[in-house]
Amino acid sequence: MAATGRTAAELEERLLAGDKRALARAISLVENDDPEGWALVREVYPHTGNAAVVGFTGPPGVGKSTLIGALVKHAREGDRDVAVLSIDPSSPFTKGALLGDRIRLTEHFLDPGVFIRSMASRGSLGGLSEATLQAALLMDASGKDDVFLETVGVGQAEVDIIDHADTVVLALMPGSGDSIQALKAGVMEIPDVIVVNKADHPLTDTMIREIRGVLSLAPQRGWRVPVVRTEALRGEGVAEVAEKLAEHREHITAEGTLEERRRRNLRNEVMALAMWRMRRRLEEEVAGDAEVQAMLDEVVKRRLDPASAAARLLERDTRD
Amino acid sequence: MAATGRTAAELEERLLAGDKRALARAISLVENDDPEGWALVREVYPHTGNAAVVGFTGPPGVGKSTLIGALVKHAREGDRDVAVLSIDPSSPFTKGALLGDRIRLTEHFLDPGVFIRSMASRGSLGGLSEATLQAALLMDASGKDDVFLETVGVGQAEVDIIDHADTVVLALMPGSGDSIQALKAGVMEIPDVIVVNKADHPLTDTMIREIRGVLSLAPQRGWRVPVVRTEALRGEGVAEVAEKLAEHREHITAEGTLEERRRRNLRNEVMALAMWRMRRRLEEEVAGDAEVQAMLDEVVKRRLDPASAAARLLERDTRD
């Protein structure tokens, strides 16, 4: 059902007033790529920029959802309004396991000061990434003090999403060696705060030593990356994580790097949105176009090379 | 130095004859985004499609280079010509560690039947990914029987590169738990062959059990993913890996899926090349354009939303 002009204005008003159902509806519009959703983001955009946006990354299974759940509880105790946006991977055969994680957040479902939403990576990752960022803007506009973005995995798509956060947390657990190797090899960006969860594991000290070793190799910045140990399930160490998040925010505000980050992030977002639209336009043109299919056949038969085929595609695009 | 028409034809001839120096020069042209490089790929493209292209992925530190070095040795014993293309991560502060890995391949440097090349992810990942694929085509055209693509990390950029292989190997070692979690969560595609390297580790059996558990959850395909244990440094298990690679190739050839894969890969490559060119055109237009900078300022000041800014960028693009 498309909303009329009147209901669109109503939705905007309720969203800005912090109404949870209005926020949920607005995010659905964005997720379904409804033009009304984009229009809404456009209208409320001047009311954004107030939330502290924190991105959480790290391999699946380390307890990110549990950590976020504990941080939400902590924020509520300080009377802060919180929104959580989780990005689920697309695999159909393990949905159950990940939904199990999600359940840890359900204790907050009835709290009007907490908004929780999952987005599935159904379509192209580019599209998901853009929808995520639009959803985060809507959460910001609805007056949330904290917006937590959670991704699964540590790939490029996750980086694109996390890059739009003011503060980035990498969550690890003893035994998640790949991530440390990736940090060491420079494949993964150095985060702002590192959390070692499930810290009751006997190998925790070894791991923290290893992390500090990697950090000591990284180029020195003004901010010294803290490594916090937590047992999120029991709430251990969570207050310290919250403190480090607040400290990081103060640091980047005082240093002026918050403005710099946001400028860079917004620039990247504009470019990503432009590219995403171009890609979609191209995909639409290509799908089912007999001429393009014939051209691809030529490529498969090794008669036309991929770069020349790409150039022809672009020429067509300009011609239209 | 730009080559004249005559030297371009000479380069092509020498490349097709399998000359190592010609191949090295051709790849440099592609890497430097020299139009002559693209022209060369166009010319030799009809001579591609014969090599068995195998992609190796997995976290840094598991010994991928050692494994590939051992596979190269094995291939040479069977008198096969081999090319290896390694993608290095961009971090400046850990180059040493990774170059150390590379050294394990140096014993083959003087063998005319082996060609080894590293490409650094200097520029945009899109650009690197495209250059990599062009380089792989050049290796194929120069008559190599096997082309091994090695990437560091398991992110999206690596997936893009690895996706163009006929066979994908995931290399792990006991303790690299993140990758198994990522497989389990469906963040990572199921590879065709899994190698557990450094299999003298006491936790090897546990890990193999875990991997088999994940594989049993995955949707069944015609090919049963083998899990091979190796100690690549001592050559243990390497012949078995080579055997599994050959078996996989036979399987996809017999089933007709090799053609299917290549068709899909080539289609993706054409799209990726088109997008990469569009992105570059957009980036060039945006850089240093006062009008665009002023527009971005409006976005930072929350007066203009990112999606509207992106739409304006695209309109400009169409206008030009």
In sequence order, what are the helices and strands of chain A, one letter per element? HHHEHEHEHEHEHEHEHHHH
CATH architecture of the largest domain in chain A: 3-Layer(aba) Sandwich
Walk across the major sheet of chain A and give the strand order: 3-2-4-1-5-6-7
**Largest contact between chains:** A-B, 77 and 77 residues
Give the DSSP E fraction of chain A (strand runs of 2 or more residues). Answer: 5-15%
Quaternary assembly:
homodimer
Radius of gyration of chain A: 22 Å
Helix content of chain A: 55-70%
Q: How many distinct helices of chain A?
A: 13
CATH H level, superfamily name of the largest domain in chain A: P-loop containing nucleotide triphosphate hydrolases
Shape label of chain A: globular
Query: Total domains of chain A, how many?
Result: 3
**What does the main sheet of chain A amount to?**
7 strands, parallel
Overall mean pLDDT of chain A: 85
